Amino acid sequence: MHKSGKFIVIEGLEGAGKSSAVAILTRTIQAVGHTVVNTREPGGTAMAEAIRDVVKHDWKDEKVTVEAELLLMYAARAQLVQNVILPNLDQGHWVVGDRHDLSSQAYQGGGRQIDQNMIESLRNITLKAFKPDFTLYMDVEPQEGLKRAKGRGELDRIEQEDLSFFERTRARYLLLAEQDPNCVVINTMQDMQAVHKDVELAITQFLER
Ligand code: Z5A
Fold this sequence. Notes:
CATH topology: Rossmann fold
Distance between the termini: 20 Å
Strand order of the largest sheet: 2-3-1-4-5
CATH superfamily: P-loop containing nucleotide triphosphate hydrolases
Number of helices: 8
Oligomer: single chain
Bound molecules: ligand Z5A
CATH architecture: 3-Layer(aba) Sandwich
């Protein structure tokens, strides 16, 4: 178990504004004197970054199966948690993660409709009792999120899924966020200034707990 560092996670669909939320959190936590380490999933170690490359792209005419996608997400997570997140928490550092396990529950469980028990088993093998101390779920309507993501250039393999995939993913996110007392939902269907204010307020309240 970690000493005193905290693991804070930002979650949400593409185009939800996770990048700027990560920057706000990092700045706010550093301002109260903690060392912050940033991670992203899938990724964050040499091997996990290689897995990220694999899952984000098409393999010519070879279809990436939903099972392979799920297993790769957990393989990357095992590498990151054991080699980066836990050692940093043990040193008392705070870790701010751009995505974590909730992404698998929402995208693979909701979007891909993989059986929840199968995901739960992988979760137990990979993470055991480890979970974030605090999660911010940045909620965006899928159509708007995809519009924002498209504005940045080409869409990757998962981003090219149809709207219903993202609607199922969002519905699962909202359901799980509601069940988690350590998760706050941020409405990102407002202008950026209002979103940033809500993110600042949420992390400030967590720091004051
Ligand atoms: N995935 C999975 O399936 N299972 C898993 O277990 C894990 C991941 C861990 C990772 O890709 C993919 O892997 C992701 C889920 C899947 N795929 N999909 N689809 P990624 O990390 O490269 O992609 P992402 O996490 O979705 O990143 P993103 O598209 O960059 O999202 P973002 O960070 O939230 O977006 P942003 O860069 O902050 O904002 C996007 C644009 O919108 C930007 O130009 C902003 O200026 C604009 N924006 C943001 N907020 C607003 C507001 N409020 N108004 C107007 N414009 C805004």
